[in-house]
Amino acid sequence: MSTLEGRNISVNFGEVKVLEDLALPIPDGQITVLVGSNGSGKTTLLRALARLLKPTKGVALLEGREIFKYSSKEVARRLGILPQSPVAPEGLTVRELVAQGRYPYQSWYQQWSREDEEQVVRALQITNMHDLAERPLDALSGGQRQRAWIAMTLVQNTPLLLLDEPTTYLDLAHQVEVLDLLDDLSHNEQRTIVMVLHDLNQACRYAHNLVVLHKGSIVASGHPSEVMSEELVKQAFGIECQIMLDPLTNTPLCLPMKRHLQAKQLA
């Protein structure tokens, strides 16, 4: 049994069906990446799995129990979540933001501890934010703020991490740095990671389990080398492409065609 699982999840916003009857067990200790075109339901599915959104039908199960039956603190000790475009109170420094990730471990009888401080320092170091720890968030670039939020997620030290577009605002070097970090956490610490990515090639490079959504349904799931195909990309993204092997990783590499090349193929 998977530690985290979506079972027959449907989500409606009014009359609009966003997800319909999705079943998704999340493999433990691996990286699962959700991909799909805009409006396919990626973020909605992630939010349902993270207890940020209650499904219209179906349930998200955490350790075999419906996730809404846990308290917020119980969930936060098991699952770290980085939502899309998070907002922090004005005037907060990087260190203060990251320290907020330790709130699930605080109580009236257990205040700030040495372990809390060690986890904050570690999260700042592995996200390369230590030198900016006292800087106000408002004074940071978009990419630096994103790394600060990632550090806050990591400081919870949970076995499960759910991240919605963690590479947003990051330049290419920091995108690779963050994805390599998540890959290390999965490989070395057996963390279970679920994330939404827009870059299909990055998804294929880092995912152990690739989940492709289209119009609220899962159209393919499995290892990228097993599920990625030109037909799948056309179905899910509406574009012609060529699939090759990445010469560095031997994972699928998607090369989208320009429109005039697509027209030539159809002629």
From TrEMBL:
* Subcellular location per the Swiss-Prot or TrEMBL entry: Cell membrane
Tell me the superkingdom of the source: Bacteria
Topology versus the membrane, per the UniProt entry?
A: Peripheral membrane protein
Q: List keywords of the entry alphabetically.
A: ATP-binding, Cell membrane, Ion transport, Iron, Iron transport, Membrane, Nucleotide-binding, Transport
Q: What is this protein called?
A: Putative siderophore transport system ATP-binding protein YusV
Q: Name one GO cellular component term.
A: plasma membrane
Q: Which Pfam families match?
A: ABC_tran
Q: Which gene encodes it?
A: yusV
- Coarse class of the protein's main subcellular location: membrane
Residues passing through the membrane, by range: none
Nucleotide-binding in keyword set:
yes
Q: Name one GO molecular function term.
A: ATP hydrolysis activity
Q: Where's the ABC transporter domain?
A: 4-240
Q: Which GO terms describe its biological process?
A: iron ion transport
- SMART domains, A to Z: AAA (SM00382)
